[in-house]
Amino acid sequence: QELRPKSLDIKQEELGDMVEKEMASTSEAIEDAVRRIEEMMSQARNESSGVKLEVNERILNSCTDLMKAIRLLVMTSTNLQKEIVESGRGAATTQEFYAKNSRWTEGLISASKAVGWGATQLVESADRVVLHTGKYEELIVCSHEIAASTAQLVAASKVKAEKNSRNLSRLQECSRNVNEMAANVVASTKSGQEQIEEKDTMDFSGMSLIKLKKEEMETQVKVLELEKRLEGERVRLGELRKQHYALAGPCDLAEDDGDTKPAPAPRRGILKKPPLAQKP
């Protein structure tokens, strides 16, 4: 009893309650994330249009699919935990089972917290991206964090589960689905970023006449600079080729004189008959 590791912040008899509370808190965080994404979707439709609206809808739809996958993962994980407790506690109570396996219980709590935290961070990052106050890279990082925390939750649940458990196989399937949805968020974020950056560089609809004239003059200056640089690089390339030919020419002649000799031309005399083919 003395050598068994103890939790630093909660008592042993409270571990069981902490597991249930943490899983419920994670579910609430995911539900709240889904509601916030729906609100962001309606706000984006009212405040944006064109390419930006298309990009925002695609990103938010991929985030919604990811949240649904996480919600199913948490539900399946909860069912698997109940199965583990029922099959492993014997005559002990649920609280005693969690207390006896405190290390495993704390790992389960930590994994559940990581999943809920990742979902919350993803929604906040998506909100900033839609409002054009955040970075697209934040969404990509949050997607990777969710995939990692999902793997942590599956690993924690797999330790005590039976190998032939249906809930375990379902949990693993849910984990693969979460990874796939997270990859979709990354893909939609990257493609959206490319579209927005391309549009921003070529969108002149909001400029005044003076601003357009100034941009035109600056662009002409850049074109002249690039043309001058291109001409200089062409001259440099020509000089490099001349030097290359100057260095390579004598070497090639020396090699031809010293090593290789031209084959003598065949004499146009009476040719000898070819030898008869012998039998094998």
UniProtKB/TrEMBL annotation:
Disordered, as annotated region: 251-280
Tell me which residues make up the I/LWEQ domain.
Answer: 7-248
A molecular function (GO) held by this record is:
phosphatidylinositol-3,4-bisphosphate binding
Matching entries from PROSITE patterns are given as:
I_LWEQ (PS50945)
* Subcellular locations according to the entry: Cytoplasm
> Which residues lie in coiled coils?
207-243
UniProt key word Membrane: no
Instruction: Report the protein name in the record.
Output: HIP1R protein
- Record the organism: Caloenas nicobarica (Nicobar pigeon)
Whichever gene encodes this chain, its name is Hip1r
